[in-house]
Amino acid sequence: MTNATIDLVSIQDFPLLAANLGLHYLDSAATSQKPRAVLDAMIRYYTHDNANPHRGAYALSARATERYHEARETVAKFVGVKDSARLIFTRGTTESLNLVAAAWGRANLGAGDEIVVTGLEHHANFVPWQQIARETGAVLRICDITPEGRIDVDKFSSIVGIHTKLVAFGHVSNALGTINPIAELSAIARRVGAVVVCDGAQAAPHLPLNIDSLDVDFYAFSGHKMLGPMGCGVLVGTRALLETMPPYQTGGDMIEFVGDERTSWNVLPHKFEAGTPNVADAVGLAAACQYLDRIGMANVRRHEQALTALASQRLSSLPGVKVHGPASTERSGVASFTVGEIHPHDVATILDEAGVCVRAGHHCAQPLMRRLNVVATARASFYIYNTPADVDALVAGVEHALEVFA
Amino acid sequence: MSDTEALYQEIILEHNRKPRNFREMPDADRTVQGRNPMCGDALTLWVKWGDDDRIADVSFKGEGCAISKSSASIMTTAVKGKTRAEAAAVFEKFHNLVKGTLPEDEQKSLGSLRAFGGVARFPQRVKCASMAWHALKSALDGDDRIVTETSDPTGAPGEGAWA
């Protein structure tokens, strides 16, 4: 083990973890714990700066507007987006992807058009495309995965064709942790001029990211998986598409002028942020980005990789235990595993008694579970506050499950 | 006894290994599906009525955790031969048991179903223990006409349920 796996952060930074020292929180792929800095930033906003932004002619409202603007700038800089007006705040990845499917899809898809997704996707990057296809008469094509849980790039290349209008794939699989070759996938989509949508929910929290350098049209992620509050996420889009496609929701803030019969839209990013914005959560997400930036995303990645390798190696050495997905070096901080014939829910219940929190189930990826030919898996996922002691507890818990079900 | 020892009692583990009445029933009078969308677990339950309005045969198939599978298995052994009213009464008691609201003196009559008393300490597992029973309840509440719903043991929803 390298020193990278210990003391990356102080547990004291995380009030929930500091108050529950026996807890081994291994479900950060579902949601992360929050550092005090994030909670403090949100409280500071509500106690010092709260007003409805973009509205009042008074100083307090101007201050709220300024905090919101700063938050957008901070988040944009963190994920490598120079033009922050193309960064839209949403409720999270799910809303970001639904926004694209509804606003871009309804205006641009028709009968005979094809949408290409993969069998690795989270339901959030699958069901919106399936449903917009049904609505518009477009055809949804699903690229298969290899037995190791990678996107089959050759198949992807053969499915993408002249009828393909949009492709959507995850940057990192939530269920297995597979890091996808997104540059290769984008290049294939570009050959036919398809719009490229990337679900970055499991990448933004864990990998160094520079969205400007990615050849994608839309990139979505959630704040709550990267130390930020629940209810705030991001959609980054290209100016060309965001400016020409219709809005997703209509109402206050997103208008330029409202006539009796017609309305004109506000400029980016406001065109896609109808209603009072979620300023406090955006401020919290910005604080989370600053916290991660101080650690350095390369260090985050190194730390998680060491823990994932350790957990995968130790779990695989137990009888009947299979860690799914490609080698740990090709995965983010996820170890998705099955324990012989023991159902993952039973594994998770036994782990829970030892204070080990893992997700058990289909991980909102039923198409993937069908393709892996499993009903469910147990998933341990690692983040900056985890240590080798968490891996010890996980392995001991699985050993106990093996005894109970011997 | 630890909470998990109370949960995973020997009889539960044994029925998980060797579930009883784990088979399809082509000539069933009722075919009902139980599903837990939270976890993807699913089962199909088959019920056949006797001439005396008692449950002549009951069987199930499906995927699930040890709690849901053993609960379905023990349920089939517990309700076979019972009338609708008797089976409904057992369900009522069982449901209270797993929720932790069944008085001690009423637990005796449940026989081997008492093993599920440990579920009450795991509120998130009550649904696992109850899934088969909810399917049975829906079979009991239905009328007598032969139902020709899909009997796909993977528990895929009927055609009308898809969007």
Structure notes:
- The complex is a heterodimer of chains A (406) and B (163).
- Chain A is an alpha/beta fold.
- In chain A, 39% of the residues lie in helices and 16% in strands.
- In chain A, the strands form four sheets. A seven-stranded mixed sheet of chain A has the order 2-8-7-6-5-3-4, sandwiched between helices. Chain A has a four-stranded antiparallel sheet with strand order 11-12-15-14, covered by helices on one side.
- Residues 1-5 of chain A have low confidence and may be disordered.
- Chain B has 163 residues and is an alpha+beta fold.
- Chain B has helices at 3-7, 10-17, 66-79, 84-99, 104-107, 126-141, and strands at 30-36, 41-49, 55-63.
- A three-stranded antiparallel sheet of chain B has the order 1-2-3, with helices on one face.
- The N and C termini of chain B lie far apart (47 Å).
- Residues 143-155 of chain B have low confidence and may be disordered.
- The A-B interface holds A 131, 134, 342-346, 349-350, 353, 360-362, 366, 369, 375-376, 404-405 and B 2-4, 7-8, 13, 38-41, 63-67, 69, 122, 125, 128, 163.
> What's the count of strands of chain B?
3
Query: Share of helix among residues of chain B?
Result: 25-40%
Radius of gyration from the alpha-carbon trace of chain A, in angstroms: 22 Å
Which spans of chain B have pLDDT < 50 for at least 5 consecutive residues? 143-155
Largest interface by Cβ-Cβ < 8 Å: A-B, 19 and 20 residues
Provide the spatial order of strands within the biggest beta sheet of chain A.
2-8-7-6-5-3-4
Question: What's the overall average pLDDT of chain A, rounded?
Answer: 96
Q: What oligomerization state is this entry in? A: heterodimer
Structural class of chain B comes to: alpha+beta
Largest sheet of chain A: 7 strands, mixed
Residue runs with pLDDT of under 50 for 5 or more positions of chain A: 1-5
Please tell me how large the radius of gyration of chain B is. 15 Å
Tally the beta strands of chain A: 15
Largest sheet of chain B: 3 strands, antiparallel
Helix content of chain A: 25-40%
Strand content of chain B: 15-25%
In DSSP terms (H or I, runs of 4 or more residues), the helix count of chain A works out at 13
Gap between N and C termini of chain B, in Å? 47 Å
What is the overall number of helices of chain B? 6
Overall pLDDT metric of chain B: 86
Strand content of chain A: 15-25%
